[in-house]
Amino acid sequence: MAKKKNSDMVIKSNTLVSASYHLSLSEIRLLDIALAELSEYESEEKHLTTLPDFIEIRADEYAKLYNVTLQQAYTALREASEQLFTRYFRYEVQSESYPSFTEERKARWVGEIGYVKDEGVVTLSFTKALVALAGRFKIGGKFTRYHVEQKAPLTSIYAHRLYEMMMSWRKTGDVPYIGYSELRQRFEIESTEYKRMSNFKSRVLDPSLKQINDLTDIKVSYTQEKKGRKIIGFTFKFKFKETAKKKEEKRMGEQTDQRVREQTDQQQERKKLRKIPSLSDEQINMFCFKIMKNYDFIRDYSNQTVGKSTDEVYSFIEAILRDDDKRQDLTRYLLLVGYEYPERLKKS
Fold first, then answer.
1. Which of the four pLDDT bands, split at 50, 70 and 90, describes residue 294?
2. What is the pTM of this model?
3. Phi and psi of 171, rounded to 5°?
4. Is the N or the C terminus of the chain less surrounded, counting Cβ atoms within 10 Å?
5. Interatomic CA distance for residues 254 and 248, integer angstroms
6. Which of 149, 181, 213 is the last residue of a domain?
7. Residue 311: helix, strand or coil by DSSP?
8. pLDDT tens, 244-263?
9. Could you tell me if residue 248 is inside a domain?
10. Percent helix / strand / coil, the chain, rounded to 5
């Protein structure tokens, strides 16, 4: 079974935070619970674990977290499960084929989703693209983290998005200039909606900031950026409320201590790992298919998996497994998907 951490932390890449998408409130809340669970899993060599095929979200935990009745939770989960399968997000990455250009991609949030009617339980599996952009990162990258409980009281979908934007700059408390059109695009606001700046501010921006300031752990303010008399964008500043700041500092200290312990454990375990000898063609074929479905591999090698065909990913893994030196780089993933050392090496 997977090693889990007792946390309500959601971890997203900044690419995902700045993506464009439209979700209902119940869908946002459902995803926050599921993403927090995704962020709890860590796969290390000594645990030989992978993420579960499906993540479960129960009505009772939804009701408790979001302070709604159990019946309201049942309804929210049922509606979210019906709609979320068709939802997608748009994001930009540097094009591999044309490195001088960015590439806009579309991806769905979930690969499968189900609802257990009599139990009030949603089961879902994330897409490869989503897994690569969320969860506990094993490789470098800019990411955003926040505690679900701090964001839970928000009822405006725009407040949820703005809160995440703030958290992506939590180290500085200053959010650089963001253009008015870009902000609308992130929120997936139609061109026919809130066409006047006064409407956008009174219906979207100001109510969202009021909710964040009243209900969460931060205080946010913004400055209008103008070109002549026309407002063309905004800059934001925020700071943690004093009580929240103390809690956050304590959490950060505990998490730093935990990370140091885990890194030490991982380093010691890596030293114990034996080299994996040459594999037969049959083994290579079998492990190629197993590794390419492994969540950790998909995330750690996202530049080689997301947006690639099955044949391309297979060829990439196959080339590594056939190389005596490079094969050792995949030791962890081989162990995760069931590789066992030959008897002669087990005894050494």
1. confident
2. 0.69
3. -70, -30
4. N
5. 10
6. 149
7. helix
8. 666 666 666 665 656 556 55
9. no
10. 50, 20, 30
**Pair 303, 96: CB distance under 8 Å:** yes
**Distance between start and end Cα atoms, the chain:** 27
Q: Tell me how far CA of residue 202 lies from CA of 25, 30, 297, in angstroms.
A: 20, 28, 45
**CA dihedral of 165, 166, 169, 172, whole degrees rounded to 10:** 160
The C-alpha atoms of residue 277 and residue 151 are separated, in whole angstroms, by 49
For the chain, what is the domain count? Answer: 3
Please check whether residues 127 and 13 belong to one and the same domain. Answer: yes
Q: Report the distance separating Cα 72 and Cα 165, nearest Å.
A: 28
Question: Do residues 130 and 20 share a domain?
Answer: yes
Question: Is residue 116 within 8 Å of residue 277, measured between CB atoms?
Answer: no
Rounded to 5 degrees, φ, ψ at 22 are -130, 125
Span 107-151, pLDDT tens digits: 999 999 999 988 899 999 999 889 888 876 444 457 899 999 999
Distances (CA, A) of 276 to 130, 271, 315, 318: 31, 13, 19, 15
The pair phi, psi for residue 232, each rounded to 5°, is -115, -10
Q: Are residues 86 and 134 in the same domain?
A: yes
Q: Which domain holds residue 84?
A: 1-149
CATH number at residue 176: 1.10.10.10
* Residue-level length of the chain: 348
Side chain identity, residue 160:
H
User: Do residues 105 and 213 both lie within one domain?
Assistant: no
Cα-atom radius of gyration of the chain, to the nearest Å?
22
Structure tokens at 230: 């026309």
Question: Is there a contact between 62 and 33 (Cβ–Cβ < 8 Å)?
Answer: yes
pLDDT in tens, 79-111: 999 999 999 999 988 787 887 888 899 999 999
Residue type, 76: A
- Same domain for 195 and 77: no
d(CA 273, CA 252): 31
Per DSSP, the three-state class of 9 is strand
- Residue 200 belongs to some domain of the structure: yes
* 206 and 287 housed in the same domain: no
Whether 234 and 280 share a structural domain: no
Q: Amino acid identity, residue 298?
A: I
